[in-house]
Amino acid sequence: MGVENSIRFPQNFLWGGAIAANQAEGAYLEDGKGLSTADVLPCGADRLERSMDTSAMNALMNRIEGYYPSHEAIDFYHRYKEDVALFAQMGFKCFRTSVAWSRIFPNGDEEMPNENGLKFYDDLFDELLKYDIQPVITISHYEMPLGLVKKYGGWRDRKVVYFFERYAKSLFERYKDKVKYWMTFNEINITAHVPFIGAGIILKEDDSKYQVIYQAIHHQFVGSALAVKACHEIISDAKIGCMLAGGPNYPYTCNPEDVFEAMQKDRISLFFGDVQSRGYYPNYIKRFFRENNVNIEMEDGDEEILKQNTVDYVAFSYYMSHAVSTSPEKAGEVKRNIFGGVKNPYLKASDWGWQIDPKGLRYILNQFYDRYQKPLFIVENGLGAVDIVEEGEVINDDYRIDYLRDHLVQVAEAIEDGVDLIGYTTWGPIDLVSVSTGEMKKRYGFIYVDKDNEGRGTLRRVKKKSFNWYKQVIETNGELLFEN
C-alpha cells in the first residue's frame, strides 16, 4: 500500500519553522548579554576554514573589527511579535529557536542568571503560546559565552560541564510551564569538524587534535546527559532530545572499498546519536580511539550518567546527502561542504553547491529509526538561494516550493514505512544570517527580510510566494503535496 492510499501525516503532527538566536536576534550586547563565540566569527565564504585558524581566532576573540551581519541580524529581538504573528498566519503548530547562553549567563560562570535575558524568552514564549504555537527550544545552538573560551578553553575543560548544567537547570526551572520540547546541542556532531563553532575550541600548535576534540565531545555528552536528567526531574511532561547534522553517505561505486568507506563516514556522525540515544560508547569508536591515540578521561560515574539519561527523541537537520570515494581525485570533490565527499552525478546542486537529494531524507529517516527505535524530529530542512524582489514586492520562489514539496513527499513515504515522526520545521521560515558564510544573501525564508550583506535595508518583512504555499500545506496537514 503506497502513501496515496493511507494517512500521510498524523493529526498531531508538529508543522513549523526553525531559527537560531545568534542568526536572527541581533541585539548582541543589549540587556546584559555577554559576547558569544558566534559574535566573533569572521564573515565570508571561507568562514568555516578561518574558524580553524588558531592565530586568526585568537585575534578575533580580543578585537572585533569591521561589520558583522549577526550583530543586528534581522532584529528578531525587537521584532519578534511581528514575526510570530506571521508564523501564526501560516498556521505553525511549533516554532524552534534557541536560547542564547550568553544572554542568561553573560560570561558563562556566574552564580546567578541575568534576569533581563530570562525575561526576553518569557515574553517570546508567551507570544508563541498566545497563538497555540509550541516552543521547541535548543539549549546550545552554535553559541556559548566567549568568557568560557577565554578562561577555560571552551568545552576542553571539564568545568564547563557544570556551567552548562547550571544554565540548563535555570531554563527548565524558569520555563517549565511553557516549553515541553527541548534539545541539548544543535548538530553536536559538527564539533568533530569545526571545533570552534561546535565547542568553543581553538586548537593550539602542540595539541593532539583528536585527543582535544573527542575529550571535549565527551564533556558535551556528559553535559547533555545531566541536562536530560534535570529536565526529567524538573518538567515531568517534557521531552528532551539530541540533535544531529544528518546526511547519508553513499558509496560512489559498488567497489567494496567505497562501500566500507561510506559506512565509516556514516559512523563519524552516528557515533553522536549512538552515545546519546543508547547510552554508551560503541566498539567501533573505541577502535578509532586506539588507532588515533585518543584516551578519553572519564570521571567516576560518567558511564552511569550516560547510560541512565538517554534522550527521548532524536532530532536532526537534513539538507543533502554525500557521495564517498576512495579515489576522490577521479570523481571530483565537492566544494563548500564541511563533510567532504565527491559529486554525485545523479543529483543537482543548490547555488551554494549543496547536492539536492529528497530521497536521501527518506533514507536517513529509516536509517535513524531502524537504529534508535525512538521518535524522530526533522528540525531543519530548507533551500538557501538568492531571491529576487520583483516589481510590486513580489518574490516568486518556486524553486523553494519545489525543493520542500519533493522532500515532504519523501517524509510522507518514511511515515508510511513506519517511522515515528514528531514533526517538521523548515530552516528558516524567515530570512536570517547564514552560519556557513555569515551572509544575508543566502536566503531560506518564506518571509523576505530587507537587508543585504553590508547591512543596508529597512528590515521590512515581505511574504514570498512560498508563504501561502506552506500555509496551505499546514492547513491540509500535507494533503496539498499530493494534489495534481
TrEMBL record:
The keyword Hydrolase applies. It is an enzyme of class 3 (hydrolase). Keywords: Glycosidase, Hydrolase. GO terms for molecular function: 6-phospho-beta-glucosidase activity. Its EC number is 3.2.1.86. InterPro entries: GH, GH_1_N_CS, Glyco_hydro_1, Glyco_hydro_1_AS. SUPFAM superfamilies: (Trans)glycosidases (SSF51445). One of its GO terms (biological process) is carbohydrate catabolic process. PANTHER family: 6-PHOSPHO-BETA-GLUCOSIDASE ASCB-RELATED, GLYCOSYL HYDROLASE. NCBIfam families: PRK09589.1 (NF007154), PRK09593.1 (NF007158), PRK09852.1 (NF007356). Belongs to the glycosyl hydrolase 1 family. This is 6-phospho-beta-glucosidase. It comes from Anaerosolibacter carboniphilus.
